[in-house]
Amino acid sequence: MLISIFGPVSGAHFNPAVTLVLSLRDEMTWLDALRYVAAQLFGALVGVWAAHLMFELPLWQLSTTVRSGAGQWFAEFVATFGLLLTIIGCASVSPSATAYAVYTTAAYWFTASTSFANPAVTIAHGLSDTFVEIAPTNVAAFICFPWGRCSFASRALAMAPRHRGRGSPIAPSESRAAYLASELEPG
Q: Mean pLDDT throughout 148-161?
């Protein structure tokens, strides 16, 4: 849902790993990528604090849940690679279906139970001490692993066709009106 809502506004960039790969593929500038990552980190922090307020938890917390090990790191490699494969592959063939593909395919088939494929969310998980969180001492491994994954995934997906048509959810420079108009065009 959020991908469909924010696609026309920002390209629905919620994940720094996706932003990095799009930069590596020259689909966005490095300056824009830096701005997006800053906004993604800020959004993750605001989100965790909002959740704390909703459940009347202390606003500032640090997780004590230890998450570490090769199996979990490999699961996050699979999750990130699957997410990137779904986004880039689908956007190059059927941009209007990308949001649905990410939800139904990437979220179901490629997501590990820890779901730390989004580095911004991983940082936010370290700032909440509930049962699904991650101790700050374990965050670095889950952050470093995605950047390595992105480099690998970007090379692996470099051959994927780039969608240059209108309406692509990975082309944030497009105006909302142009995006909606392109979705209504036949063909």
A: 58
CATH code, residues 12-161: 1.20.1080.10
pLDDT digits (tens, 9 = 90+) for 77-112: 778 888 888 888 887 788 778 777 777 776 666 666
| Inter-axis angle of helices 30-54 and 16-24, nearest 10 | 170
d(CA 80, CA 17): 8
- 3-state SS assignment for residue 159: coil
**pLDDT tens per residue, range 122-144:** 899 899 998 778 999 998 888 77
Would you call 173 exposed, middle or buried from its count of C-beta atoms within 10 A (0-12, 13-18, 19+)?
A: exposed
Q: How far apart are the C-alpha atoms of 5 and 19, rounded to whole Å?
A: 18
Q: What percent helix, strand, coil does the chain show, rounded to 5?
A: 65, 0, 35
Residue whose entry in the numeric block shows the structure tokens 């026309």: 8
Residue 123's SS3 state is helix
The string of DSSP codes covering 19-72 is HHHHHHTTSS-HHHHHHHHHHHHHHHHHHHHHHHHHTT--SS--------SHHH
Cα–Cα distance, 110 to 164 (Å, whole number): 27
pTM value is 0.74
